[in-house]
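Example 3.
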Amino acid sequence: MPVTGEAIRLSRLFSEGKNAVVVAVDHGLYFGPLPGMLSLPEVINRVAKADAILMAPGSPTHCQSVFSKRGAPAMIVRLNWGSNYAAMWKYQHSHSVPMISVADAVAQGADLVISSLSLKNPDEAEDAHNVEVFSACVAQARALGIPLIGEVYPTGGDDHAPEELQDEIFVGCRIIAELGADLVKTFYTGKRFNEICAATPVPVLALGAKKLPKESDALKLAAVSIEAGARGIVYGRNVIQAKDPDRLLDALKEVVKDHMAPDKVAAKYKLD
Amino acid sequence: MPVTGEAIRLSRLFSEGKNAVVVAVDHGLYFGPLPGMLSLPEVINRVAKADAILMAPGSPTHCQSVFSKRGAPAMIVRLNWGSNYAAMWKYQHSHSVPMISVADAVAQGADLVISSLSLKNPDEAEDAHNVEVFSACVAQARALGIPLIGEVYPTGGDDHAPEELQDEIFVGCRIIAELGADLVKTFYTGKRFNEICAATPVPVLALGAKKLPKESDALKLAAVSIEAGARGIVYGRNVIQAKDPDRLLDALKEVVKDHMAPDKVAAKYKLD
Amino acid sequence: MPVTGEAIRLSRLFSEGKNAVVVAVDHGLYFGPLPGMLSLPEVINRVAKADAILMAPGSPTHCQSVFSKRGAPAMIVRLNWGSNYAAMWKYQHSHSVPMISVADAVAQGADLVISSLSLKNPDEAEDAHNVEVFSACVAQARALGIPLIGEVYPTGGDDHAPEELQDEIFVGCRIIAELGADLVKTFYTGKRFNEICAATPVPVLALGAKKLPKESDALKLAAVSIEAGARGIVYGRNVIQAKDPDRLLDALKEVVKDHMAPDKVAAKYKLD
Amino acid sequence: MPVTGEAIRLSRLFSEGKNAVVVAVDHGLYFGPLPGMLSLPEVINRVAKADAILMAPGSPTHCQSVFSKRGAPAMIVRLNWGSNYAAMWKYQHSHSVPMISVADAVAQGADLVISSLSLKNPDEAEDAHNVEVFSACVAQARALGIPLIGEVYPTGGDDHAPEELQDEIFVGCRIIAELGADLVKTFYTGKRFNEICAATPVPVLALGAKKLPKESDALKLAAVSIEAGARGIVYGRNVIQAKDPDRLLDALKEVVKDHMAPDKVAAKYKLD
Amino acid sequence: MPVTGEAIRLSRLFSEGKNAVVVAVDHGLYFGPLPGMLSLPEVINRVAKADAILMAPGSPTHCQSVFSKRGAPAMIVRLNWGSNYAAMWKYQHSHSVPMISVADAVAQGADLVISSLSLKNPDEAEDAHNVEVFSACVAQARALGIPLIGEVYPTGGDDHAPEELQDEIFVGCRIIAELGADLVKTFYTGKRFNEICAATPVPVLALGAKKLPKESDALKLAAVSIEAGARGIVYGRNVIQAKDPDRLLDALKEVVKDHMAPDKVAAKYKLD
């Protein structure tokens, strides 16, 4: 059983027992300013309907207004930096380092925290080091009753062959949960994603990854993720670079929380 | 400016810039089970409309459901115990001791914390000791970005002569703010309460103290407190022992947040 | 919610959801060697059927065999010493001091720990100090997932007038639970003991106190305690000084766990 | 002499002086979800007859019920992660890192802990680092009276030539015991395993490693291990992937605790 | 079970299982320089045949030679100072304070340490404080594996009426053992001293107290102490102020270790 504070904060994310729609705006940590994300405070105000917003450790201070009312989105702060996320530089390893402690993240306003774990690196020692960095996050988060999302992000991201990605994530989600993650964030892997959700003893959140061509695709991805057993989604570019993020969030909530059919929802909200 | 997390948590309490209605259910720490408060979980479910609920450090674990959804009341955990609160035993001193650290309160789910400071004791050393206990709370709360309410509760409570109470609180609120309280909770002192609010550099919350004869009295007390400059109220018995706490909370919110006239609100909600 | 380890250890005490029969053998801390308790190791071997055995911090090293098999009684170690227990010296105050940390108690084999809290002392400062000592135990126990029994033992013990004892314990049990006790141990107060159990948000264990004239009286006391809502009993002299502690424990279990009528059980076990 | 708490916890594992049957369900830390282990809580309920269950640090919170009654299996929590266990990735080194402290493991419910030590690595510095990680576990475990199992797992696992495996384990068991392990867990090495048991000054537990073709083979392996001097076995897949883990555990206990002949036991329990 | 280092050090005191003859030379802490003890280094060299020598914390640095060879007496360092020992000033209370930590005592060469506990003081708070001071010694001594002698020295010393002294020591020895003393040092109380030894779960050492008129009396006191169940004696003035301490020690060893009749031993050694 999680301690009281952690249980409360988890229940706020999955409010009334429903699935969660999370928006990630921490891309700047790796990609710098993506199109549509030049001004972080502006971006964030457009996604205020999310259940939670995932940010870099330096961002809350610039974006506090969106979190500053009762019922505001929960703040999720990223704790570690891993070189494998620097995809644009074709990085091939995954060196994980701590950026901020859980206590300092709480001081920035965090309601939840996230830390990634990337294994099967070119050098075994990287795996071991990454496990150590992740485990330290678990210990800190437990001591403060702050839920920790474990992000399973294979080195090389989603450029793996589908079977390989499935295998790595199937293994990785279980590893990160047995290390103490309270939730897992990972890629939707396709038809066998349900096996991942079934074998992971904590709630799984499916990430959106690259911008999909159409906004209705984003709804469909959400629908298949939830159908496969995910307890929510974590979308970045697919929401932020949408024509109207606010409207897309409304649509996503109908799919994710109320299990509405994505095509009907797309039609209702006039999404292409 | 307070650090980001603290600013966010304060803004959630005063959501949309409005004043706050807080309910205190920590009487058990001093009085044991008061009438109407035998079952803490039941009581708390009846005050779920409050902006925040103030609890003893051992209570969250028994009452977590009320805090477990998005937009739920904020949890305020009391950090210290002071013998002057044991009014039923006619205690005349004020020995303050720590009950729980801010980190442990966060682990129990706290969004804010409260610590009291009682000065002008029979023995000067008590004053000094109490300042030390309070200051340690400030340091802990700051490090975690958790807003700290400083409670100004003169030794002897509200049994002082009115002028004396005014003087002690006028002085005490400024002292506690200068020690680092982010908000102040204290007695409404009457006609000159506005001087207290004016001279206190942080928001003041007025406490309800003993059960008032009529529920409309509770509305009036709230109205004069707000009018004098208080940014909210902290009611215990006046809400919990009401015939219908839920209805009284609705009425109090109209008075406290929307500055409605208490007699009209009493009539609207059919309160005696 | 308690953390996993604490929940597990509590469930072992109330195994299969049944009430608990605990034997206390820590009298030596205050009274020295009572009749029938000259040799602690011998005494303890006679009460191996208890669900748990409560000991002084120096005793486990002399009595480890009774705890050394699967399914053995849980070990409860007392953490503090309070002068009010020194009843034979007619002590009138209650100065509580720590004897052993929770970590050191675990190193001695503790599965649970106990700390007492005595209030309403001749000097208020004693109350405050005792709250501080107790609260430190709560923090230590939580950090290690060790359940903490809070003992409510009014200064003066059970020599109070019945109404006064009822009042003090009614108040004291709520205070200690709001401070963070996971269970409460206290006196059976008579006909209104049910009010205490109802107003205490954690399980209550009734203590046996002085040796009762007849062993069937001990069964009756257990029966009325459980009937009033206690989740178990903590007996010392009434078990240890029994003619056949082993047989009495069997009888007590039928009353406490299976709610059998005490007179029938007394007859079955041939207890006077 | 171990301190009291450690001696008690060891005696509970070897209850009534008999050998121990331990089931390991921590494979997820390296292999992800193995067949037959998709749902950890389900798996664990099928092995409730074990004397102890070995888990990853994140698993107790999902599996607490099996430990939650008097006489339940002891919980063993793994403290470190070593890259050499990631056998499916053909890892050739052994980088050991801490996952959880002994205090945090106790908070999760641990009765015992385990840490591995793999030596003779491609880089000497790895050996030294691993000794440091293991020694830190010894210090923490001693301070809390929690028995520490030292796992001797040569880099490369049991893919060594038999003589080489014998030599490495013969050496490794003595090293780990001299570093302070209270028990040793290692591979059964064949005919000369008795030399290992004889030269290791603490009890040796033989691990089952890969799934054996027939369940009767698992009985035979247990029998030869015990005959050679092992004080128990630690089986994972051989129990979990059995047709009826409960029945196999009954059979294993007859072999391990009562020294019954494995073929007779296989016949009695109708195991192939 | 005590931890290894403590067990080893205890066994060295009771070498070959025999009782111990200890000489105390810490009188200066209370009485200043007693006759025959003007030069501490000289005194100590005359009692080198003792099994152990009990000293004040500042003395080892002046007396190190006697401890500086293999098989030398064990060094016992006193940890606390209690005002009740200042008998020459007719002190009536017992305020116990720490003088030296166990770690610092070890740095001075201590093999064992001693701390006293005096209860039943004019003010209850003194009792509680003394328990706290003693308990802190227990925790320190356990952490370092140093055996701790608990000295039971009623406030007022041996000026009590015999029955009262018997009662206080009977109670006190059990209390100090349940607090965690590894041995007890106390007064020989007369004919019922055997009851004290029987009810104390750790070895009892009988102290010699005031100088007896004749050296043969010292032998007789040792004999009756051992006969009653003491595991050794702690003599100060009776040895130091003897005509030939060395010879008296030889005689005492025959009585204490070999149970020889004191009159025969007195005759053999020509003691008056």
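The interface with chain A takes residues 26, 28-33, 38-41, 56-59, 61-62, 64, 81-83, 86, 89, 91-93, 95-101, 104, 107 of chain D (CB under 8 Å). The longest strand of chain D covers residues 112-117.
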